[in-house]
Design brief:
By secondary structure, the protein is of the alpha/beta class. It has a domain of about 325 residues: Metal-dependent hydrolases (TIM Barrel), CATH 3.20.20. The chain is about 30% helix and about 20% strand. The protein contains 13 helices and 23 strands. It has an 8-stranded parallel β-sheet. The chain has a 7-stranded mixed β-sheet with strand order 3-2-7-18-21-22-23. A 4-stranded mixed β-sheet has the order 5-4-1-6, with no helix packed on it. The longest helix is centred in the middle third of the chain and has 18 residues. The chain binds N-(aminocarbonyl)-beta-alanine and zinc ion (ZN) (2 copies). One zinc ion binds next to loops.
């Protein structure tokens, strides 16, 4: 089965080139000069990409399908969440398997495999959350690295749930130094935050906006600084997840300037949404924007700094931290007290669009869009060049993106299992046109030209990952 994507502009981290892409079965087999060799090529399917960009499928390295949290479960299953991802041009996710206090890592991981297997529309891998860094968990870490689960998330936040103290963090980092794994850090000083949140609630300050007010950006900066010091002592790399604040970015940038293996991602919510207008929306609407770290104030320069960080590579990756909860019966658990609102925002469908909007706005180049959303995620998490590359031999995960179409974002049109959209009303000056996942068209067009989903649950395969390619 041969597919030719013709007349498009191929975008890679190296730049833009007018090339045709030839796919055979699940793989890319050639990039061809359009006016030359590809005229003689026969193909079963020809996708005309005239006037469109051809980019590697998006890789979202931070999702939480079906995550148990705050007495409920994230509302997207692996089936609904990966289908929504495909609609948005994402063809690989790396989700987080979760170990909590008192649980065995292996049993937890097995249960995540069971949730995902046979249900995913696109390819998927796992990181492991270590919520209880015991002797057993540390041993298991070494085994997991050999099995393709090469990254481990630790939490400096959520005492009593996922929290690790500095000693536990140091020990996990020492193991990463030995086994080549990558420590992913949720950097917020959870012990201090719990005190501030308790004091606010005691004063009757229970609205959603207090979720943000009680988690100062300084405490993300402090935790980021501390984690970097621990990583230096342990001799391990560290990767900061969902970085939201200028203070944290400063720490990452300073460490990178020293030549340390310190990396970070940010997420669209920290680039587009803010504390006052969203978390502070009237009534209980702000609950839809409760996530941790929280949305930051628009009166400082967080948004601008994060866009700059993406441009200058102090921020390497954009992920979504897709962790959706419906307003009804889920976010509503915190009607009386913001501390009971399940933390998380859904956005797996919108990442490619929202970061492309950064290209339109002049924040990023096309090459950097592809680099932060696909190529670097693949390299950072041991998937390159199978994923994230438009090269012969790579998986044919390809997005045809139309810069002349538009994408209105709304709960009325999205495909995530959520009863609201955090990005309601934003209109993207571009649109995902066609999506191939390992050579199969999963988002195509019907006879009227309307986009349609052509994949199915179970199309997605599990990805056994290698070590990060950014480490020596
Ligand atoms: O609010 C968030 N981010 N929820 C998901 C869990 C996490 O910390 O990533
Ligand atoms: Zn986190
Ligand atoms: Zn997360």
């Amino acid at each position: 089965m041969r597919t030719l994507i013709s007349n498009g502009t191929v975008i890679t981290p190296q730049g833009s080139h007018d090339l045709d892409v030839l796919v055979e079965d699940e793989k890319i087999v050639a990039l061809l000069q359009p006016a030359g060799t590809s005229e003689n090529i026969t193909a079963d399917t020809i996708i005309d990409a005239t006037g469109k960009y051809v980019v590697p499928g998006g890789i979202d390295v931070h999702t939480h399908m079906e995550l148990p949290f705050g007495g409920t479960f994230a509302s997207d299953t692996f089936e609904t969440g990966t289908r929504a991802a495909a609609w948005g041009g994402t063809t690989t996710i790396i989700d987080f398997a979760v170990q909590r206090a008192g649980e065995e890592v292996r049993a937890c991981l097995d249960s995540w495999f069971a949730k995902a297997e046979g249900n995913c529309a696109i390819d998927y891998g796992f990181h492991m959350i270590l919520g209880d860094v015991t002797e057993g968990a540390l041993k298991e870490m070494d085994t997991l690295v050999g099995e393709g689960i090469t990254s481990f998330k630790l939490f400096m936040a959520y005492p009593g749930v996922f929290y690790s103290d500095d000693g536990q963090i140091l020990r996990a980092m020492q193991h990463a130094h030995e086994n080549g794994g990558l420590i992913m850090m949720h950097a917020e000083n959870g012990i201090a935050i719990d005190v501030i949140a308790e004091q606010a609630a005691a004063r009757g300050q229970t609205d959603p906006v207090y979720h943000g007010i009680t988690r100062p950006s300084r405490l993300e900066g402090e935790a980021t600084h501390r984690a970097i010091q621990l990583a230096i002592v342990a001799g391990s790399p560290v990767y900061f997840v969902h970085l939201s604040a200028s203070e944290a970015l400063e720490q990452v940038a300073a460490a990178r300037n020293e030549g340390l293996n310190v990396f970070a991602e940010t997420c669209p919510q920290y680039l587009y949404l803010n504390l006052e207008d969203h978390l502070g929306a009237p009534g209980f609407a702000g609950a839809g924007y409760v996530c941790s770290p929280p949305l930051r104030t628009k009166h400082q320069h967080h948004h601008g700094d994060l866009w700059r960080g993406l441009r200058t590579n102090d921020l390497s990756i954009v992920s979504t931290d897709h962790c959706p909860f419906c307003m009804k019966e889920q976010k509503e658990l915190g009607l009386e007290d913001f501390r009971a609102i399940p933390n998380g925002i859904g956005g797996v469908e919108h990442r490619m669009d929202l970061i492309y909007q950064g290209v339109v706005a002049g924040e990023l180049s096309l090459a950097r869009w592809v680099e932060t959303c696909s190529a670097t995620p693949a390299r950072m998490f041991g998937l390159w060049p199978q994923k994230g590359a438009l090269l012969p031999g790579a998986d044919a995960d390809i997005v045809v993106y139309d810069p002349n179409a538009t994408t209105p974002i709304s709960v009325e049109t999205h495909h995530m299992n959520m009863d609201y959209s955090a990005y309601e009303g934003i209109e993207i000056a571009g649109a995902v046109d066609t999506v191939l996942s390992r050579g199969k068209i999963v988002i195509g067009k019907d006879a009227t030209g309307k986009r349609e989903y052509l994949g199915k649950a179970g199309d997605g395969h599990y990805l056994r990952r290698g070590l990060s390619q950014y480490l020596l």
